[in-house]
Fold this sequence. Notes:
Blueprint (H helix, E strand, L loop, with lengths): L8 H12 L2 H9 L2 H12 L2 H17 L10 H19 L6 E2 L7 E2 L27 H8 L3 H12 L4 H7 L4 H18 L17 H15 L3 H7 E10 L9 H10 L10 E8 L2 E8 L8 E11 L2 E9 L13
Parallel strand pairs: 3-7
Antiparallel strand pairs: 1-2, 4-5, 5-6, 6-7
Helix pairs in contact: 1-2, 3-4, 3-5, 4-5, 7-9, 8-9, 10-11
Amino acid sequence: MTDARPLGADEATFIAAVRSDDATRFALVTERHRRELQVHCYRMLANYEDAQDLTQETFLRAWNKRESFKGNAALRTWLYRIATNACLDFLRKRNDRVPVLSELPDPGSELPYLQPYPDRMLPEDPQESVVARETIELAFIVAVQHLPPRQRAVFVLRDVLGWPASKAADALESTVASVTSALQRARVTMREQLPGRRLDWRSPATHELSSSERGAVKSYIDAHERNDLDALMSLLRDDLRFAMLPDPGTVTTTAEDAVDGWVSGGLFQPGHDDWRGIPTTVNRMPAAALYVRTPDDSEYRLFAVAALHIVDGKIAELTGFDATDKPWLDLPPAL
């Protein structure tokens, strides 16, 4: 696989590390690519912890294959190729990494393995396509999971990262014709999964939350802290889509069903009616970290993270995640 480019500093340093068998220099030059490779693995797998593991697997494979790097391609390209194939190998071995049909009149699907992505772990360069908000939001990540693994890889390489067909074909040891066909099929599926959503993934993207989004998060937290179900209902669109992960069977498609489910499950009832919250972001989406204090406790304990998709000031989608035992979310465990 080749890029029509002169040997760069990264590549020269990497080759020198290989020739000297210097693991420390190897780690220094590859480590700077960790964050973007981890986002790439996350798009392929929709799970933060799996993405961490596969990024580490990528570096292990790169070290083991270091003699094969001749500088004919950019080091970044070479690492993406290894990461993509590591994810495909992982998916071939796992039969639990496909969307599960939910038991709804309007069939949707659930991803019990979906995890949020902490914004602090995104690459720092706001110009990088890997951090475009539209391609890291949960709805996009879920839609990508509906693609068969090879189509998924082609779609991410071509339409998210903007690789030419020949480069993607080399990475996947395929042909340009095969890659082009896979991309066409993938785009059809993505349009089916994201009706009405933005489908031009490579045009200029937003990064900052709007004032409407920030206001909705504040109101959402306020409603919890006041234990005010009426105020909470007023924030939710009637056609709210809600899921609580990783619990199966929690998807609902109306605000009323969602609130009824929360109450019947014990939330906002004695013992689970003393809330605190802090605004945060995950997947470049507005989110609320919710803490609850039980009668026998002096502190508010981290309970869940609610990622919100807000339309015209109202919550259209709410994805809740169990936030306990997830230090990588970088949230205080207690308030």
